[in-house]
Amino acid sequence: MADLREGRDPQSEGTRLARVAELLGGRKILRKYPRNRMEAHEMLLHGLPAKALTSFVEKFVTLNWDAALEKAVGMSLRTYQRHVAADDKPLSLEQTARTWKLAEIVAKATDVFGSREKAELWLTQPAIGLNQRRPIDLLATPAGVELVETYLERIDYGVYT
Question: How far is CA 45 from CA 39, 72, 80, 82, 109, in A?
Answer without folding.
Answer: 10, 19, 20, 21, 25
